[in-house]
Amino acid sequence: MKVIGTTLFYSLLALIALVAIPYGTAEPWWKALFQCAVFILAGISVTQRLLWRDLRWPDPQLLFPILALIAFALLQTLPWQHYNLAGVDGIPRTISADPFQTRLFISQLCALLLAGWLIVLYTTTRKRLRLLIDLIIAISVMSAGFGFLRRVAQLEVGFGLPYLLPGYGYGQFFNSNHFVFLMEMALGLVLGIVVSRGVSKLRLVLYGLAAIPMWAALILAGSRAGIFSILCQVLFLALLAGSNRSLPTSDAKAEDSRVWFRTGRSLAIRALLIIALLGGAVITIAILGGEPLARKFDVMTVELNPKTAQTYILRLNIWQATLDLIKDHPIAGTGFGAYWIAISRYHHASGEITPQEAHNDYLELLASGGLIGLGIGAWFVFAFLRAARRKLRAADGFNRAVTLGALVGIMTVAVHSLVDFGLHITINALILTTLVSMVVMNVPDDDAA
């Protein structure tokens, strides 16, 4: 049984690494391979546990809202009426505007759910958890390095991967914003662990060195939302560092003046840390980003102009069209995965290109699932925050550091998802699932395991 568990764990690591390679797994055929691999590994795990009568399972609290979302998406594909169109009888009418795409969404969500479940189930020692962290760091550093190579050496179509265009995307991704999502999560995990000082000094140094190329690549990718999100991440890290450095409270016999002095000194240290980290972040962004990044920020005045937005496919008119769609389908939405076809009635730009995503995952959740989908999403967030709070109260230094690092990465992605759709890319969704799994799991010391 131990051999099977070890094999399953290392198979998961190999799968995560492979998913990162081909454009972050944006193509349908590679998504299908990822899903099949996860289903096979889950089938082996269930068979193993039934044969050995090991009925221990991870805490199911976070499973319930995800299962509810899967059930709701499946309901969106069921026909509730039939109608005639152009002489064709018996055409099914469903909540989803594209039942096929909704089924693909269900398949992908099931694969991610099982992947997270397997990660929690088989990351049973600190050695395995450190390997998982190291894998995420290695994937991100190698992606950043590949991005540097493309930036300086790519002159024609194809650079290791056949569909990569010079000047478009970053790393192995078609879209630089999708690359930035990966960097944000890895940086949050690494810097959160470093700030919390939950690992050995050697690992702290190695993690700090690994953060340098990731930070540089994130800035060079030129994502404005990524820059804003990473500044939020730095602010959160500064608060975390200040909290770790705060002095212990005095006992009941201490004088009030001494208590106030310690509190004031703690607040001053935290304020200085925030100013220093934010100042350093702004300086490195200005130096590395340079004129190309400045031009991108200048374009924002044009993009936010309502007249311009009506002419081009910009976020402003996409969001307005999405709000109009939501008004017409407020309860059950138009189906998960069906946004691309449902929005075509409401998007009033040039008509040459129809947006495939809402460029805001929260708006897209509301458009796809309506108030029911939004309620399920809120349920998941509430359950997740409860699990994180419970974990932090009971965790030791190492588990606490990993949990805080994972929360920093998740928080950064939550901010960036206000204006982008990077979680639609499989590797980003899988890394986010891994971070959520890290928050849920509580790995014992290797000696006690």
Helix-strand topology string: HHHEEHHHHHHHHHHHHH
Helix content range: 55-70%
**Share of β-strand residues:** under 5%
The largest sheet is: 2 strands, antiparallel
Strand tally is 2
Nearest-angstrom radius of gyration? Answer: 24 Å
Query: Could you give the distance between the termini?
Result: 16 Å
How would you classify the helix and strand content by structural class? mainly alpha
Number of helices, where a helix is a run of at least 4 consecutive DSSP H or I residues: 16
What is the overall pLDDT average?
A: 83
Strand order of the largest sheet: 1-2
Question: Which stretches of 5+ consecutive residues score pLDDT under 50?
Answer: 245-254
Shape: globular
